[in-house]
Here is the input.
Amino acid sequence: MRVSKMFAALSAGSLLFASPVYAQAQPKRSDLDTARELLKTDAAQSLKLVDRIIDEALAKDPEAICPGAAAAFLQSYMKGNFTVTVTVENDWCDALLVKGYALNELKRPIEAEAALKLLVGRAPANAQYQIEYAYTVRVNGDLPRALELYLQAEKLASKLPDKNEGTHLRAAALRGQGFTLSDLKRWDEAVKAYKRSQKYEPDSEIARNELQYIEQNRPH
Here is the structure.
């Protein structure tokens, strides 16, 4: 059975970030650190922890915008490394990202979409957030909207000053486009998207597997 990975059908160890935020030596363990670790084993408790972080932050400033460097979480999560910490000022942005994961783990994708929509609204130029949001929109069945979001994410990624990050996120956005186009049975366009993604990440197992899936399932 064909199953997409959490968030944009990305490979393990996928997303990289431009500006990881490092705490001071031997930082006090935060609720966000604990929430990240709980995602796989107790998503409900993870959700409780991040909800408190988000509520407290937005109560202080309802119009708060995510800092540009709120990005360390997903790299550590996807690699199974939970030692990366974030500064207090970035906690609520990363908490929204964790919330999206937790809600998806709990099979509550409608709520996950709402959380990620809020995150994207507070960080509209963040390509990675856009990709995560697009994934959940696709899961919820709005394929045309998901495709639009993936296309926007590709454009945002192309403008990133960090070339390594930009290359990776462009590949991720293109794989998301390919998956969505495949769901739409737009096979030729899906093949083009996956092959374009391979220009950025030629060793992607996901792209190879999806191209094989298309070859086996498209009308001949």
